TrEMBL record:
Protein name per the record: StAR-related lipid transfer protein 5
Protein purpose: May be involved in the intracellular transport of sterols or other lipids. May bind cholesterol or other sterols.
Alphabetical UniProt keywords: Lipid transport, Lipid-binding, Transport
Pfam families recorded: START
Domain START: 72-264
InterPro entries linked to this entry: StARD5/6, START-like_dom_sf, START_lipid-bd_dom
Source organism, top-level taxon: Eukaryota
SMART domains according to UniProt: START (SM00234)
UniProt organism field: Toxocara canis
Coiled coil: none
Gene Ontology MF term list: lipid binding
Length: 275
């Protein structure tokens, strides 16, 4: 994109509606949406508005392109490997949070069963995920489910006897399936109904993704990407960074146990659009 292009004289609020550009105070989400629109070349003239669905498409396109680059990158360093063959690899770039790549195999199950356990609209995720305290659907981005996007709130338990507080994120999630695999991609967003709560840290979701793929003999391969950053006062960064590989492996272990315990009693619950 040419650097000579002028920045459009238009500002959007958290619902991606045009507001008076003379207003000097606007929230972080306005800046994010505005920069994404400009960066990707969607130069909007005065009088043009962007609805919630359009802004979601722009943000998700950014996330998917970054995911493609990460998956094709060979600059991964082994971080942790378990006895069952699961691997966590790490990639670090200057001025960016670490990115973690997980791969692991679940035996004796199917893609459909694993997707049912992960389904944010069903009852099972909160039963088996020991790190998750609450999951809530905040919004269907478009009623026709053309974009397959949902806004979901995740609340995790506190850890280390309260040293790490309960943390919540508001995530824009896109679900799709192709060639027998299920994919969900998540990135940070906001929602007007979800205001900060006392004692709960509002965290930001960097690019995250989960890919569920069928393997021969009723095996399922999971690939997960998590980009995360956290600062805990008084703890060395190397200690803090060790939490992420452990958290990823714990999620996988919980999911595998749930799959082996056959906790699915009813698979008629609504699945996310695209799944």
């Amino acid at each position: 994109m040419s650097t000579s292009q002028e920045c459009p004289d238009v500002i959007f609020n958290e619902n991606c509606e045009q507001v008076d550009s003379s207003e000097s105070e606007f929230c972080l989400n306005q800046i994010v949406v505005y920069s994404l629109v400009f960066e990707r070349g969607y130069l909007l003239s005065k009088g043009t508005t962007m609805n919630n669905c359009d802004s979601g498409r722009v943000a998700m396109t950014e996330a998917e392109e970054k995911l493609d680059r990460l998956l094709s990158d060979d600059g991964w360093i082994m971080c942790k490997q378990t006895k069952d063959g699961s691997k966590v690899m790490k990639q670090h770039r200057a001025n960016e949070p670490n990115v973690y790549l997980f791969t692991g195999l679940i035996n004796g199950t199917t893609v459909e069963q694993v997707a049912t356990l992960i389904n944010p609209l069903g009852p099972y995720r909160i039963q088996w995920d020991t790190q998750l305290k609450q999951i809530e659907l905040l919004e269907r981005v478009d009623k026709e489910n053309v974009t397959n996007m949902l806004k979901i709130r995740h609340l995790t338990h506190s850890r280390l006897k309260g040293l790490i507080s309960e943390r919540e994120t508001v995530d824009l999630c896109r679900f799709h399936s192709d060639n027998g695999r299920r994919v969900v991609i998540m990135t940070d967003t906001t929602h007007p109904s979800d205001v900060p709560k006392p004692g709960v840290v509002r965290a930001r979701t960097h690019l995250s993704a989960l890919v569920i793929e069928e393997r021969p003999n009723r095996n399922v391969n999971l690939t997960a990407i998590l980009q995360a950053s956290v600062f805990l006062f008084g703890l060395p960064s190397v200690v803090v960074e060790s939490f992420f590989p452990k958290g990823i492996i714990k999620f996988f272990d919980d999911l595998r146990k749930a799959s082996q315990q056959n906790i699915i009693k009813n698979d008629s619950y609504e699945m996310p659009p695209g799944w």
